[in-house]
Amino acid sequence: MGVFNVTRPASFLLTGIPGLENSHSWLAGPLCVMYAVALGGNIVILHAVRVEPSLHAPMYYFLSMLSFSDVAMSMATLPTVFRTFCLDARSIAFDVCLVQMFLIHSFSMMESGILLAMSFDRYVAICNPLRYATVLTNEIIAGMGFAMTARSFITLFPLPFLIKRLPICKSNVLSHSYCLHPDMMKLACADITINSIYGLFVLISTFGMDLLFIFLSYVLILRSVMAIASREERLKALNTCVSHILAVLAFYVPMIGVSTVHRFGKHAPRYVHVLMSNVYLFVPPVLNPLIYSAKTKEIRRAIIRMFHRIKM
Q: Does Zinc-finger show up as a keyword for this record (predicted)?
């Protein structure tokens, strides 16, 4: 018998928000608005960075990577979320679920890596500004983008195979309107130790290390800023980091909240787990374009010029 010749359902059943099944049609409206903001806002930023020469700089190249990751994440979840809430079509084929799981986890890890790269950008810009242009060349930025993509693919490539080796016979009902590795492995009627250990290893070695290095970069940034004599110059330097700090908080706070609820909130109502997971996946793509549009005047000016040209 082959390693993947095990008992598994032909499809899974996705779940909306437990207890609010009768309100799914009402929830579809806010979800559509969130997707519209996420897709529209990030696509506008991508186009602005592409067409505006003033935005052809490392900081905005990294921002365009972040916007691309957010668009990809939204597109990965949109089909099943839309079908679950708007059409009440909950079934998803097993292999399609594996693909969606891989894409969601991959783009999430990619976003974490991009936030780390953006913290390095801010570190060089503030702590070593004279070398900024020579350190962050187009070749280096492209290499960093390739490395983040390769890390996500290589690290998460085993996940679908780790799921396919498990016999799934407890149930075929997932806890969310999309597919996640922790959710799928809990349905197995076999030892899931390998899946749990590998999942924890991925979490610590990627997201955990990224957050640690982001924190260390800001320790160095604060130390450098405090050495500036002028209070006005200190505030100006720190102001360039505000958008990135808000983006980091928008990404990591919901992630930590989800991990805390899953680990320590086992007796919490089921809808709490679902809502926290939805916040983790939906909020960063919505907030990031709003944060950078509101806090970065160069982005605002570029968007205004872009729409002005369209009207003409």
A: no
Nearest to 66 by CA among 32, 113, 136: 113
Pick from 101, 107, 96: which is nearest to 71 by CA? Answer: 107
Is the pLDDT reported for residue 1 higher than 60? no
> Phi/psi of residue 188, each to 5°?
-75, 145
Taking residues 27-40, what's their average pLDDT?
89
Between 153 and 273, the higher pLDDT residue: 153
Q: Round to whole Å and give the CA distance between 4 and 7.
A: 9
Backbone angles phi, psi at 231, to 5 degrees: -65, -40
Non-local (6+) Cβ contacts of 100 within 8 A are 76, 77, 80, 92, 178, 179
Which DSSP letter does residue 149 get? H
| Residue 106 vs residues 55, 149, 206: alpha-carbon distances, Å | 27, 8, 11
Angle 138-156/94-127 helices, nearest 10 degrees? 150
The DSSP letter of residue 22 is: G
CA dihedral 125, 127, 131, 132 (to 10 degrees): -10
Query: For the chain, what is the mean pLDDT?
Result: 88
Structure pTM? Answer: 0.92
47-102 pLDDT tens trace: 999 989 889 999 999 999 999 999 999 999 999 998 888 888 889 999 999 999 99
Say if residue 206 is exposed, middle or buried (CB neighbours under 10 Å; 0-12, 13-18, 19+): buried
| Identity at 295, one-letter amino acid code | K
